[in-house]
Prior knowledge:
The chain is built from 2 helices and 6 strands, in the order αββββββα. It is α+β, with helices and mostly antiparallel strands. A 6-stranded mixed beta sheet has the order 3-2-1-6-5-4, sandwiched between helices.
Amino acid sequence: MKQQFHYATVTEAIEQLRNQGFTLDLxxxxxHITAGEQAFPAEEFEIVDLYRYEGASDPADEATVYALANxxxxxxxxxxxxxxxxxxxxxxxxxxxxxxxxxxKKG
Length: 107
């Protein structure tokens, strides 16, 4: 699925994705996607859609909203910020998810 909409704010993107069934609040911990107490290998997930937001005056306001899904039907939202709070393993995991996403768009 390619990106069809650009929502004005992160909050609006999250609200609309929840309406589309992306109901889990996902987090990235090293090379795993977590939903509450459950952890899943990140490579099981694919980016269905993403929305990037850039802060006009403050780089700390930059974020990407990811709509993620896995083959077992889990669908959720991961919001990732930029900057010093991102660890190297998480950054590498996001790069791998992006690579899969871009490769899927070529096909």
